[in-house]
Structure formats: structure tokens, C-alpha cells
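Support request, priority: normal
Reporter: lab tech (M.K.)
Component: structure prediction queue

Hi team, I submitted a job for Glutathione-dependent formaldehyde dehydrogenase from Antarcticibacterium arcticum yesterday, and the status page still shows it as pending. I've pasted the exact input below so you can check whether something in the sequence is tripping the parser. The sequence length should be 384 residues. Please let me know if I need to resubmit or if it's stuck on your end.
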Amino acid sequence: MLAMNFRGPFRVRADRDKPYPEIEHPEDAIVRVLRSCICGSDLHLYHGLVPDTRVGSTFGHEFIGEIVEVGSAVEKVKIGDKVMVPFNIACGKCAFCRQELYGNCHESNPESGAVGGIFGYSHTAGGYNGGQAEYVRVPYANVGPTVIPEWMDPDDAVLLTDVVPTGYQAAEMGGIQEGDTVVVFGAGPIGIMAAKCAWLFGAGRVIVIDELEYRLDFVKDYAQCEVYNFSELEDPVGFIKKTTDSLGADVCIDAVGAEAAGNTMNTLLGRKLLLQGGSTTALHWAINSVKKGGIVSIVGVYGPIDALVPIGNVVNKGITIRANQASVKRLLPRLIEHVRNGIIDPKALITHRVPLEEVGEAYHIFSRKLDNCIKPVLIPPSAS
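Reply from support: The job had stalled in the queue. We restarted it manually and it finished. Here are the results:
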């Protein structure tokens, strides 16, 4: 079958000889992929920043598709169902799944003590093949796959597998109170959605910081927020303090993660020499921009090794830090209603629809931020 094939940093190709996935457990399902996205965190893999990303892997943790085969113990979905598949692979039975911490499933990724299994996200996340392919094996099919409502646009559905829940949870973890000032670092798809969702929790002011003008223009229109280009600010932290009466923001959201720009030392240590789990520039800015007693919400992805953060400022300011992978299954019922009611329009983020055969070009465009790309979606030939 046709699938994306990772050949090393900055090298992916469409492989027509990837073996068709097989049922390996009675709770497995095989899904014919109808849409898959390239995520900003896929770029961390593409850029060689995530340990144990093996040659031959197929990325893709955001996808929807049609069930074409099920194991003998699958009861919640059936052949022919069109489903959205959360990026978390969750057993639904372990201590963490029972707390609805589906991103921390203790069974789906026995190689890690932190994150649970994730489709197509290296062997640090379980070593599963992802959905940038014509077909994909979905473990624990009684837990994750959710039938797409008949009224829902497939382009909305595919963004409910990661982007919308992650942006929503970023705002939720911020504990936003009525009238709060919320600063979002990063105007990629997750930052855009976090800014949009901040209003749903009662924010009184939403500010987005990035350096790409076309993304700032997009989020300003999509999320009705203030935007600032950090490359034009002498000091982003000083600017946030100045614009909040010297107090700092009530809530800061790091929606950037490991590939943050803006600080030479962090770029050198985290992106060039790989001596820490990514560049922590956005996290530094978030910690130093939030008010005393404020909350920093982290959804940006960092590597599993240590990273430099100003922990002294965290302690001395009394900051609360909340972070996690989005618990997609927990959030889906609420987010489906938000889409139905027109409160969130996920598909508006999609700027590029690319045939799966051209996956290499899609990664190049997204990685280089060409052609005003916000969110690329891959369409397999078997989807039609």
C-alpha cells in the first residue's frame, strides 16, 4: 500500500510497498484512511529532534477513516463505520485511563513512564505506524475510534483528532477566569485554536506572539485577538509586563515547544547541538511573562531529556504549571457540540490539500512555512 516513509532528517517519501497492516490483537481494527494531517509536532520528527525515530516509520497521528476490518473482540465500532481516531492510543482500563488521562495510558506504551502510545510518533511513543498511509492498524478499537456524525464535514472531523482538543485543553489547563488576560506563544494551528478557545473560558483579553506575519494575520482574524511579532519587540517579556500594568498576564500558554526561535543560546543547545530536549525560549517567555501566582499551560512538545527552564522564577513567583498531551476522548463530546453549534470552525485552518503521493513536498512546504501554509491535509488515492 501507499504510505509516508521516513528516511532520515528532512527526508520523507511516498512508499508504494509498505505492507498492509494486519489484525494483531482481538481488539484491533484496520482503518482505510480518508484524511490525515501533518502536525507541527510531526516536524519535530522530520527535523530529527525526537529520539528513536526510526528509518522506515510512517508518521501521522491525526486521521479519520473507514473501518474495514475488526478483531473478534471489537464491539463498539463495525465495518463501514467512518470514524475519527484520537491521536492518543489508550487501553481504557488502566489506572490513568480510568481518570480520563487517555494521553498517559499505562498499557499502550510500555517503553515509557510518561506519555502513552501515539500513532506515528517514534518508538518513544510506542513505535506505532501512523495514518499518513492508505490503511492503519488501530489498537484498542473499543476505546478510541469515535463514529463521525453524519452532519459533520470530514475536514472538521480530522482536526478533532488533535488540533482542536489540544488547543482547547491548553486553554482549559490555564484555569482562565472571567476577564483574564491570556497570552499565547505561537501562532501555529495549536496556538490559533488555543487563542480561539480562550474566549470560551471567559478571557477578557487574548494576545498572540509569533514572528510569522501571515500566521499573525490569520489568528487575528480567526480568533479576534491582539497579535505581536516578537522580532519587532525589543523584549517580549518586557512588552507583556508593560501592556499589563507591570503585573504580567494572568495566563500564559506555550504552544510552540521544542523548535522555538528568538534566543541564540536556546536555539544552539536545543535545536543545533541537541544537548537538551528542545529550545525552551517560548517557555522562558511564558514563565517570565505570567503574573505572580499565575498559570502557565504547556502543550508545546519537548523531548524526553532535560531542558533548561527558570525554575527559580517559577518558585519565587508562585506560578502553577500545567501540562499534558490532550485527552482527546474526554473532550470529544463537548467539542463535537461546539462544531455543531458553529462555535468552532476547525476546517478554516486547512490551507493545503495534498495527494499522499506528494507527501515529501507537503512536508517541505509546511516545514519551510511556504505559501502561507497553516495546516496541510493529505488525501490518499484510496479515499475517493
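Residues 164-323 form a domain with the Rossmann fold fold (CATH 3.40.50.720). The mean pLDDT is 95. Let us know if anything else looks off. Ticket resolved.
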